[in-house]
Amino acid sequence: MNYINNYIRENMNLTVREQKLFIYYLKCILYDVSKLVLFLFIFSMLHMLPEFLLTFIVQFPLRTISGGLHFRHYWSCFAFSFVYLFLIVALLSKILIPFKIGIILLVLCIIIIYQIGQVRSPSRPSLSDAKLLHHKRAALIAAGCEAIIAILIYQTNFAPILYWSIILHTMQLIIGKRNLVRLNTTR
Questions:
Q1: pLDDT per residue over 93-117, tens digit each?
Q2: Which of 36, 43, 167 has its CA nearest to residue 112?
Q3: What is residue 44's three-state secondary structure?
Q4: How far is the C-alpha of 83 from the C-alpha of 86, rounded, in Å?
Q5: Do the Cβ atoms of 161 and 89 come closer than 8 Å?
Q6: Is there a smaller number of Cβ atoms within 10 Å at the N or the C end of the chain?
Q7: CB atoms inside a 10 Å sphere around CB 11
Q8: Nearest CA to 21 among 128, 131, 134, 123?
Q9: What pLDDT band is residue 187 in, cutting at 50, 70 and 90?
Q10: CA–CA distance, 93 with 27 (Å, rounded to integer)
Q11: What distances in angstroms separate CA 143 from CA 63, 79, 137, 146, 150, one per listed residue?
Q12: Hey, which residues does 119 pair with through a beta bridge?
């Protein structure tokens, strides 16, 4: 990483702040790609690759738009993500909740996701009110579309992956928002 830092400092015309942001985003991308490759390998070896891929497809827009829990270290993030994904793929994907309860839970999750907005890492710069509203609306649309798909395919084997992904993501946002509020009040 030092090589990349030196290269950026010497060859790119960026301010110190821009350099730090560039390196931060580059690290995020490298870490996320490496985790994805490891997860692909692990879930392939566990013969759960299709379920993992569906979970990833559902989680990616929700996580990208609305954020979630953040960890300071790569391996703690990896461990949490693995347990989280394994819980959905291997355990919760087998639990089909009654249709009416599922609809109520999904609507409640959509409302909560919209209300919370975005849970960002404390190391990232905060958003303006306009950008926050944009993210809240995008999260509403993403969660709404995924919930509609879950309702339309409710009697299939893949429906539990969709709605449990939305439910657990909502729980993650609630916990993340609570931790951020607590973090900000102790400073």
A1: 999 999 999 999 999 999 999 999 8
A2: 167
A3: helix
A4: 5
A5: yes
A6: C
A7: 8
A8: 123
A9: very low
A10: 32
A11: 11, 25, 10, 5, 10
A12: 67
